[in-house]
């Protein structure tokens, strides 16, 4: 039986200053097409069906996979029927993957349902993964001792310098790089916009949009061990 992977997307469509946001197209599309031939993928979001996409990412990313993802009838159905996060059980999946976009910093980071779910995945030794701003969904997650899953581990995510470059510092409640460090994690990064993936046990993180496909490959490799 194929491994089951849960893609979690934000339900937030506005930043702190009211700018449009959501989940980031290539950060869903690129890992999806790495994993889809080998796994069963379900989508979920705090509010369930039709999680909002970051419209800027649609305009910015016109690569084959991103365009294909938007037109893919299977994907459209998965998005339209995305589960409400409160109805999801970690026991039903082998891995969780948090899609980036600024949205996760605004809702998933503090959503108690998500915090509990992410903690369950991690504590069960299941792959707990995220890319770009997706690791923000893990900042509340804890291990079996109630300690942040970042403490004593190496991780990456959207960097402070990348956040400054896109002029979104005021759009979100915290900077991901800073928060990982505050939680006791060892934050590492590549040059801005270059791909970077960190695997530390069952925690898999990617830095930015360019890291999304490589994160998908790291998840697949971990599932196939």
Q: Could you write a compact summary of the structure shown?
A:
Residues 62-220 form the DJ-1/PfpI domain. With 225 residues, this protein is of the alpha/beta class.
Which strand order does the major sheet show? 3-2-1-4-5-9-8
Query: Count of helical segments?
Result: 9
Report strand %. 15-25%
Order of helices and strands: EHEHHHEEHHEEHHEEEH
Spatial extent as radius of gyration: 15 Å
Identify the CATH architecture. 3-Layer(aba) Sandwich
Give the helix level as a range of percent. 25-40%
Task: Using the alpha-carbon principal axes, give the shape.
Answer: globular
Low-confidence stretches: none
Tell me how many strands there are: 9
CATH topology annotation: Rossmann fold
Q: Which sheet architecture does the biggest sheet show?
A: 7 strands, mixed
Average pLDDT figure: 98
Task: Compile the SSE list and pairings.
Elements: E1 4-8, H1 25-35, E2 40-45, H2 55-60, H3 64-71, H4 73-80, E3 83-84, E4 95-98, H5 103-106, H6 112-123, E5 127-131, E6 154-155, H7 160-165, H8 176-182, E7 186-187, E8 197-200, E9 203-206, H9 212-223
Helix pairs in contact: 1-3, 1-9
Provide an overview of this structure:
Pfam families: DJ-1_PfpI. Keywords: Lyase, Stress response. InterPro entries: Class_I_gatase-like, DJ-1/PfpI, Prot/Nucl_acid_deglycase. This protein is an alpha/beta fold. The chain has one domain (4-224): Class I glutamine amidotransferase (GATase) domain (Rossmann fold, 3-Layer(aba) Sandwich), CATH 3.40.50. It has helices at residues 25-35, 55-60, 64-71, 73-80, 103-106, 112-123, 160-165, 176-182, 212-223, and strands at 4-8, 40-45, 83-84, 95-98, 127-131, 154-155, 186-187, 197-200, 203-206. The strands form 2 sheets. It has a 7-stranded mixed beta sheet with strand order 3-2-1-4-5-9-8. A two-stranded parallel sheet has the order 6-7. Strand 1, helix 1 (25-35) and strand 2 form a beta-alpha-beta unit. Helix 1 (25-35) packs across helix 3 and helix 1 packs parallel to helix 9. The protein is globular. It starts with a strand and ends with a helix.
